[in-house]
Specification:
The chain is an all-alpha fold. 81% of the residues lie in helices and 0% in strands. It has helices spanning 3-13, 19-31, 33-53, 60-80. Helix 1 (3-13) packs across helix 2 and helix 2 packs across helix 3 (33-53). The chain is extended, with a radius of gyration of 16 Å. The two termini are 30 Å apart.
């Protein structure tokens, strides 16, 4: 499996990559069996989680902690960049 590809896999699964990156990732998956296997495993896991958790909304406190963490992470990245 290709380490640099795996880092992009979750963004690809979530539809968060550009059209060009999407095409490049798909081409890589078509040619790399280990990465395709990783993709299939992650896609199955994501689907299982979606089906298992779809009926239960996240608690308000958890949502607030996640949003706070995201904002603080974005702030840290912007300061470093």
């Amino acid at each position: 499996m290709c380490h640099e590809f795996v880092e992009e896999l979750y963004a690809y699964l979530d539809g968060e990559v550009s059209e060009a990156d999407c095409a490049a990732i798909q081409a890589h998956l078509d040619e790399c069996g280990p990465c395709m296997e990783e993709y299939r495993r992650d896609a199955r896991l994501k689907e299982l989680i979606r089906r298992s958790c779809a009926c239960q909304p996240a608690p308000t406190e958890l949502r607030q902690r996640i949003v706070t963490y995201i904002h603080s992470s974005v702030t840290v990245v912007r300061r470093q960049g």
